[in-house]
From TrEMBL:
<dbReference type="Pfam" id="PF14489">
    <property type="entry name" value="QueF"/>
</dbReference>
<keyword id="KW-0521">NADP</keyword>
<feature type="active site" description="Proton donor">
    <location>
        <position position="64"/>
    </location>
</feature>
<keyword id="KW-0963">Cytoplasm</keyword>
<feature type="binding site">
    <location>
        <begin position="79"/>
        <end position="81"/>
    </location>
    <ligand>
        <name>substrate</name>
    </ligand>
</feature>
<feature type="binding site">
    <location>
        <begin position="98"/>
        <end position="99"/>
    </location>
    <ligand>
        <name>substrate</name>
    </ligand>
</feature>
<comment type="pathway">
    <text>tRNA modification; tRNA-queuosine biosynthesis.</text>
</comment>
<dbReference type="InterPro" id="IPR050084">
    <property type="entry name" value="NADPH_dep_7-cyano-7-deazaG_red"/>
</dbReference>
<dbReference type="InterPro" id="IPR016856">
    <property type="entry name" value="QueF_type1"/>
</dbReference>
<keyword id="KW-0560">Oxidoreductase</keyword>
<comment type="similarity">
    <text>Belongs to the GTP cyclohydrolase I family. QueF type 1 subfamily.</text>
</comment>
<keyword id="KW-0671">Queuosine biosynthesis</keyword>
<feature type="active site" description="Thioimide intermediate">
    <location>
        <position position="57"/>
    </location>
</feature>
<protein>
    <recommendedName>
        <fullName>NADPH-dependent 7-cyano-7-deazaguanine reductase</fullName>
        <ecNumber>1.7.1.13</ecNumber>
    </recommendedName>
</protein>
<comment type="function">
    <text>Catalyzes the NADPH-dependent reduction of 7-cyano-7-deazaguanine (preQ0) to 7-aminomethyl-7-deazaguanine (preQ1).</text>
</comment>
<dbReference type="InterPro" id="IPR043133">
    <property type="entry name" value="GTP-CH-I_C/QueF"/>
</dbReference>
<dbReference type="InterPro" id="IPR029500">
    <property type="entry name" value="QueF"/>
</dbReference>
Length: 166
């Protein structure tokens, strides 16, 4: 038989395949789940594009909408995507600035996964005639990934892509 076995992290998952999901409307990092990375001997990127991210302005409580891009090079663990969806949904009634949201997401994923490298980019739709697109990254200290993070930060947005969804 090929494919991932129960012993390779599947037995610990509580959300995948569960039809009775409890959608949490308040920030809930505890919903995140991880499984073993069966390919930890190689570097590769995992990228999530989440075009329906919402949070609230902490002062006005007006909704903010964004596409959230999460890219990471895993080490020993990978995030289970259904838990990530429910986690991102939990920001729906969370009041924080855009910059805070991307950093909170990155910090929670670092805590869960201890990735080699990660970056989170929130492309928020404009409000009041201005859009805010915070971007943050992290490379594991003392490794080449820390150097990659510094390089990416210093060269981020040198060639801004065409934005046509606003």
């Amino acid at each position: 038989m090929s494919g991932r076995s129960h012993e390779e992290g599947l037995k610990d998952l509580t959300l995948l395949g569960n039809q009775n999901n409890n959608y949490l409307f308040e920030y809930s990092p505890e919903v995140l789940e991880a499984v073993d990375n069966l390919h930890s001997g190689r570097d590769y990127f995992v990228k999530f594009n989440c075009p329906e991210f919402t949070s609230l302005c902490p002062l006005t409580k007006q909704p903010d909408f964004a596409t959230m891009y999460i890219s990471y090079i895993p080490d020993k663990k990978i995030v289970e995507s259904k838990s990530l969806k429910l986690y991102l949904f939990s920001f729906r009634n969370h009041g924080d600035f855009h910059e805070d949201c991307v950093n909170i997401i990155m910090n929670d994923l670092i805590k869960l996964l201890d990735p080699r490298y990660i970056e989170v980019w929130g492309k928020f739709t404009p409000r009041g005639g201005i859009s805010i697109d915070p971007w943050c990254n992290y490379g594991k200290p003392g490794t080449k990934y820390e150097e990659i993070a510094t390089h990416r930060l210093m060269n981020h947005d040198l060639y801004p892509e065409k934005v046509d969804n606003r």
